[in-house]
Design brief:
By secondary structure, this protein is of the alpha/beta class. The protein has eight helices and ten strands. Helix 2 packs across helix 4, helix 5 runs parallel beside helix 6 and helix 7 packs across helix 8. The protein is globular and about 45 Å long. It starts with a strand and ends in a 9-residue tail after the last helix. 37% of the residues are buried.
């Protein structure tokens, strides 16, 4: 794991203009290969924080730095995003949806006309295989289960080979077995590719058992879970489900 943070947030206010900020004084660093969980009640600002890190929302104050520089259009291809609603094109195939993930790093001609190179097609094939959907490449995503659709969203992010992966509630509404499979995929991406992962999860017990660190949004601040909670979580072998 690199000693230098891939993501640095410094004294940031998160939210929207002309209304009170959702979060204030946000300071956060994430290193390559690290999985950091974000928990907090609904509506507190978790999704807005994710969108701000992705460069889709500007911070009201402070800095959000990726690899030491401000997030810009040129760096977004190195940041993968799995939105809460997944953002899949429902009546297109698995292959089409995953290939979309490669376009941010393609040249302007390929992006405008959606003309994938041989390398992009091969990267798409490998990503689909990595999430266990090789036999579903030509299947429309609206015919897949919820867990399979999340695998497609992960493969779409993987094909970018991102340095930072942002996942907003990608484990929501999954049965225990499927959630464990997705957790295994995320852990492999972090360990094998060195990708930093920031994941929002509504289930604090689950987050504490597979994330390296867990942060909580409380009021308008971000606070770490105390050391006792972290140590207790690290002693648990794995998430076993909600029951």
């Amino acid at each position: 794991m690199s000693l230098e943070p891939i993501l640095s947030i410094r004294s940031a206010e998160i939210g929207f203009k002309d209304v009170s900020p959702l979060l204030e004084g946000v300071n956060l660093e994430i290193k390559s290969g690290e999985i950091v969980g974000i928990i907090g009640r609904s509506g507190i600002g978790k999704t807005t924080l994710i969108r701000t890190i992705a460069g889709l929302v500007r911070p009201l104050l402070g800095e959000v730095l990726f690899s030491g520089g401000n997030i810009s259009h040129s760096t977004r291809g190195s940041i993968g995003l799995i939105p809460q609603r997944l953002g899949l094109v429902q009546h297109q195939t698995v292959g089409y949806n995953v290939l979309i993930g490669a376009l941010p790093k393609s040249n302007w001609f390929q992006s405008i006309f959606s003309l994938p190179s041989v390398e992009m097609r091969e990267a798409t094939r490998k990503a689909i295989s990595a999430v266990g959907l090789a036999d579903k490449t030509l299947v429309s995503v609206n015919l897949l289960s919820g867990g399979q659709q999340r695998r497609v969203a992960i493969a779409r992010a993987m094909v970018q080979n991102p340095q930072l992966l942002l996942a907003d509630e990608c484990l929501g509404e999954l049965d225990t077995e499927t959630a464990l499979e997705i957790i295994g995929l995320l852990r492999a991406i972090a360990d094998e590719q060195g990708t930093a992962i920031l994941i929002v999860d509504h289930n604090p017990v689950r987050a504490r058992t597979f994330c390296d660190r867990v942060l909580q949004l409380r009021g308008r601040t971000i606070i770490p879970l105390n050391e006792g909670e972290q140590e207790e979580a690290s002693s648990l072998p794995q998430y076993r489900g909600d029951e």
